[in-house]
Design a protein that fits this description.
The protein is mainly α and 142 residues long. It contains six helices and no strands. α1 packs across α2 and α2 crosses α4.
């Protein structure tokens, strides 16, 4: 793979840097997952390589068709599952989401800008009146 785009390159479709980071990770997952094939994988790789913009991909019939095909495939698989298989899949999904949440929390802790923000946030103000009114309970004087 050639040089990969950055999270910032996705800000034209993302609402904030955190969403851009998650979108970038999702594209990388699609591109690297051996269970994802065809146009969906190819388009994720094209976006990551910068040969296709994310907005262009989202607006393309090929992308929507690939996503729709994948969703239909997942629905067929789900309909064929036994209750036991469905319960096991739910457990795996819950574990995976828990791992993703831990990973995101660790990444947040590792980011220097987050460490600075936490340091400022965790520090107790010298005087409770230094806390903006929106962040403290009302008092009789408010």
């Amino acid at each position: 793979m050639s040089k990969e785009i950055s999270d910032g390159d996705l800000m034209d479709v993302a609402a904030d840097p955190e969403q851009a980071r998650r979108l970038h990770r999702a594209l990388r997952t699609l591109a690297d997952n051996p269970n994802v094939t065809g146009p969906l994988k190819d388009m994720a790789r094209e976006v990551l390589n910068g040969r296709l913009g994310m907005r262009e991909a989202l607006d393309s019939d090929a992308w929507r068709g690939a996503v729709g095909d994948r969703m239909a495939e997942l629905r067929r698989i789900d309909e064929q599952m036994t209750p036991e298989e469905r319960a096991a899949a739910r457990e795996r999904a819950e574990r995976w989401f828990g791992q993703q949440e831990q990973r995101e929390q660790q990444e947040q802790m590792d980011r220097p800008d987050e460490q600075e923000a936490r340091a400022g946030h965790d520090a107790a103000p010298a005087d409770p009146r230094d806390i903006p009114p929106a962040y403290r309970p009302p008092t009789r004087g408010d």
